[in-house]
Input
Amino acid sequence: MTLAPRPDWADKYAKPELDTRFFDIAALMERHQLSRALAVELQNHFRDLARAEPDGDRQSQYAEALRRAKAGEFEDHRDLDRLAKAPFIVVFDLDETLYDQHIRDPALIETCADLSVPRSNGKTRHIKLNPGWADAIERIHALGGAVVLFSANLDDTCYANAAAWTLGGVPLLEHPAIAGMLTNSHLVLQPKQAGDPVSEPSKDLRIVDPDLSRTIIVDDNPRRLFQFRNVRVYKKFLGEAYCRSADPAARAAHEGGLPQVMVEIEDALAYVQSHPGTGFAHAYLPYTTLGRLAVNWLQHGTGMKRTAAIEHLRAHPELADEDF
Output
């Protein structure tokens, strides 16, 4: 049920003392008749159990992880029914997208950091939130969408940060806009027999949207992604650079980043409303990584205006490549 181990040097989060094996997700789904979401959660539960008891019996830990998965137990208390019914889902990366958790300059900590999170080593993690993050999440919720957070960082770090974070006075993970939070143990690899090989631990959007018709991800790091027709690459948000910048254009660009994503989302939703039966991911295609390439290609090759190229791509989605 597991894939061949990757060399430690190939993953910055790898720790030889921990059991961080990757499972063959398709094999888990077939063997145990699990959905993809439950199969990936089995991997997550197994890692949690192995980390908590490094000398424990692996077969027993696997059996317990399988029991939890079959019982629909999610570490993040995800509501699969809610995700299944959401007309659209926006997945946000955390590090360098919604926040920067590396504010280290003592001269900036007091004026720049929005959150201070005690660490297990006695130090404190100082976090700067991306301007516009709250408005974006609340607007998505108001429009009927669901927000999922998905970080490649370690479970404990993500949950500690989330525990210190509120939205409208409500703890973030308890806010009705947030439909779940996925972390490092939800990253997957994929052998070639299950489709295109995925050799870098990556975020599989099929965990929240099996047919990828309603979901996009906003993320600064394409190396952790492989479904590029659903990816909105975001310029890295670097908190210290933002806080110390004296360049009005740079500050305005930082502050306008997430509002621009919302302009795109609302444009896609308007297209869905005027074209019944169209999925959100299709309507958002022109703003994705592969869609932008196709829009630029249409503009430069034909002289089309950008809005015309966007509409043309929506009418002819086959012009966007399936992958790189």
